[in-house]
Amino acid sequence: MTMSDKGLQTKILAAVLIAFSALIFWGTLNLAPSPFEPLGASAFPRFIAVLVAIFSIGLVFMPSEREEPELPVVADPAPELAGPVDDDQVGMRATPVMALATVGCTIVYAIALQARIVSFAISTAIFLLVLMTILTRFNPRAMPLTLVMAVVFGFGLEYVFTSVFVVNLP
Amino acid sequence: MVFLETLGPLFAPMPLFLIFIGTLLGIVVGAIPGLTGSMLIVLTLPLTFTMPPLDALVLLISMYVGAISGGLISATLLRMPGTPASVMTTLDGYPMARSGHAAKALGFGISASVFGGIVSWVVLVALSRPLADFGAQFGPFEKFSLVLMALVLIASVSDGSIIRGLIAGLLGMLVTMIGADPAVGTMRLTFGFSSLEAGLGVVPVLIGLFSVGQVLNEVMAHDRKPAQLFKVHIRDTLLSSAEWARSLPNLIRSSILGTGIGILPGIGANIASAVAYTLARNASKTPEKFGKGSEEGIIASESANNASVGGALIPLIAMGIPASVIDAILLGAMMMQSITPGTLLFVNNPELVAGMMGSYLIAVLLMFVIMVVLSRYIAKLGMVPRSRLMPIIIVFCVAGTYANSNIMFDVWVMLAFGVLGFTLEKCRLPLAPFVIGFILAPLAETNLRAGLMISGGSPIPILSRPISLCFVLVTLGLLAWQVRREFLARKTVKGVAVPT
Predict the structure, then answer these.
(1) Do B493 and A82 touch (CB under 8 A)?
(2) Among partner residues B90, B189, B498, which is closest to A69 by beta-carbon distance?
(3) Which of A40, A42, A92 has its CB closest to that of B387?
(4) pLDDT, tens only, B295-317
(5) Domain segments of chain B: what residues?
């Protein structure tokens, strides 16, 4: 990432934060003052929203935010200490697509649970099967284990939650 | 005598069982890179609602102890620090293991962990009550200033610049203001959505930030082939009396340092470990061995990071001020069990306070046994690929969040905060101040508004009351010091070639 990229990112972040502060401030405008105490329900969120906006402007003008040289971004606390990257059988690609896929699968999973289309066990088994398959990059050699894990954990977790921990499931 | 009293409430099968389970799970999670103690504890929160308060807290504290300790195993045997707190251990633990002394490297780490834990337990028992009594003198303005100080301290030591830490903390405060306001119950910031009237629950927000957010980070990372797994014989992990004797000054220094750093809000095990390591190297007669398998390095890192756990429990139990993210989660757990930390807790629920302190000691001792006996097996769990682990964690997140409230809305909140946590980290806005702000904002607002009602609307007592003034001065001093440090760092960097 170049420094200009970083500066642009900071400006975008600041703009989003200022917009969010404005939304919060706007959300407190219709709150009536309290007859019992001096501040009322709106003062604290307004004050904090204003502070967020001020700091966001400060973010753009702070020298460290504008000029600091970019250091290498690392995923692990000490990656140089870890072993070589495992890119074979069950390795995952370092790509935002995996994060997007995880979020997408989880949203579909939650919708299925909310709609009660099938039981928790079946929904979970299907979710695990799909997500594990994606994260193992559709590797056919990883499929048998994926299938077994999906079934075992799908039905096993339902049993553990309902019979051992005795909690309600969607 | 007071030390023994802490163990009294725990001599029953259930608390002892929960301490064992909690410590074991903590160690396992701590030993698996990518899984964190925060993740384990927030996922356990929903399961603790139906438990008696003592059992719930005993379980969570044991997990805390285990999670900080477990990172040592994978750091030493696999060259992969299971937790950030064990990064410094890796520097010497793995080289020592590679040189054929894996069991000894683990032995130094485990023994130092136990020593640090016991030292901080002594300080915990000795200091908590006096500190709670001191805290009892605080009025609303003091409590407000204390929260302010904690927030600024956490923001100033978080990753990145202080301004980003402050923004994160303030965002956390804003999030908790959705729903009924804590003073008079006026609905605010719901934007017409009735689902938001109850506010955003602690459990979905914390599970989202620390579990889903972490999963998204992990699926973005490569799986790594662990290095060679060394064989470990149990008897070799036990230190001889000569080894204990020569390590004693380092153990005492690092444990006291770790406890002291743990007490300060926001600093935590990672920094305690790094500072103790640096001090040990400076004090060593053989500093050249550091980074190449020095037992002193392992001892300093592990005794300090474990001692910081006991230190961090002191302000939590005595005043309800969390010193780290995990402590903030524990505070959330206490709030959900309707437990208010402070001097009244010592008066009204002495068995609960004693149980919390005692469980910490028992967990530390159990941790020693479990790690000596099971390290070589637990290390193998560190080889489980993320691609298998992360989807299962998502299922736990969904089920745990739903079990907490039995409404799907919370699951959506959890997912939203997972994405938010992930995004905040990508924007270099640290999560620690966000969570501390989220947990402490109601306390700050309630006390400020109560104080203003007492003073007839005048904020002057914030500066005219001595203790409150001290907190305000410390807060301003911290801010000034941090801003100056960033400007000085900027000047230094200007003299260095900037990589393109």
Answers:
(1) no
(2) B498
(3) A92
(4) 999 999 999 999 999 999 999 99
(5) 2-487
**Integer Cα distance of B276 and B301 in angstroms:** 6
* CA pair distance B77, B380, nearest whole angstrom: 9
Shortest alpha-carbon distance between residue A22 and chain B (Å): 12
What mean pLDDT value characterizes chain B? 86
Q: Which of B174, B415, B448 sits opposite A110 (nearest CB)?
A: B415
B459 touches chain A (CB under 8 A): no
pLDDT tens for residues A80-120? Answer: 444 444 443 444 445 688 899 999 999 999 999 999 888 99
Return the SS3 of B21: helix
Angle (nearest 5°) at CA B435 between B429 and B441: 115
pLDDT in tens, B140-164: 999 899 888 888 887 776 666 888 9
Residue B435 CA neighbour count, 13 Å, CB half: 33
Is A102 in Cβ contact with B174 (below 8 Å)?
no
Residues 48-87 of B with CB under 8 A from A: 50, 78-81, 83-84, 87
Domain boundaries, chain A: 3-67, 96-164
Contacts of B294 (CB under 8 A, 6+ apart): B92, B96, B284, B286
Structure-model confidence comparison of residues B48 and B500, the more confident one: B48
Q: Which of A131, A117, A134, A123 is nearest to A157 (CA)?
A: A123
pLDDT 10s digits, B55-77: 999 999 999 999 988 888 888 88
CA separation for the pair B2, B473 (Å, rounded): 35
End-to-end, the C-alpha distance of chain B in Å comes to 63
